[in-house]
Amino acid sequence: MNLPFSDALVAPIQAGTKVHTFRAGNRWRAGMLIHFYAKNRQPGMYLFYPVRPVVSVQAAELTAEGMHVDGCRLEGTELELFARRDGFANSTEFLAFFAGRALPIVGQLIHWTPVRYGADAPTLSDHTAS
Q1: φ/ψ of residue 89, rounded to 5
Q2: Residue 42: which pLDDT band, with cuts at 50, 70 and 90?
Q3: Residue 32 DSSP symbol
């Protein structure tokens, strides 16, 4: 299935620093194939990364209180790590990206690496971008 990204996120995905994406809705499942596209539905649309399977999907929700993954609120170091792994410089930049949008945003965290968050995540040190 096509997964569109802005041009600004192409380089972090290709470099392996963006290892997941937060999307509204509930349409992704583990095992589905991700087709990474930039300029989706525009002239010049292109596949910029090899097709990969979804490794896992976690329930995610952005509320006025913060980011929640599988019902666990991400805070402190884990929130900073999450934001960097989602392609942002820090959590402030991540939250600013969603400023002005109606909250809550209920959706999924789509993983194409083994990284996980929340109660079932082994430890912060085990979150590697492989």
Answers
A1: -70, -35
A2: confident
A3: P
Print burial letters for 57-79: b (CB count within 10 Å at least 16), e (below 16).
Answer: bbebbbeeeebbbeeeebeeebb
The pTM is what? 0.89
Token pair 């596949």 in the structure block, residue: 47
Asked whether the beta carbons of 45 and 37 are under 8 A apart, the reply is yes
Q: Tokens representing 29?
A: 């499942």
Using CA atoms of 75, 94, 126, 21 in order, give the dihedral in degrees to the nearest 10: 130
Task: Domains for the chain: give ranges and CATH numbers.
Answer: 2-126 (2.30.130)
Residue 85's identity, in one-letter code, is R
Total Cβ atoms within 10 A of residue 110? 22
Convert the pLDDT of each residue in 55-98 to its tens digit: 999 999 999 999 999 999 999 999 999 999 999 999 999 999 99
Distance separating alpha carbons of residues 31 and 56, to the nearest angstrom: 8
Alpha helices in the chain (DSSP H): 10-15, 76-85, 91-97
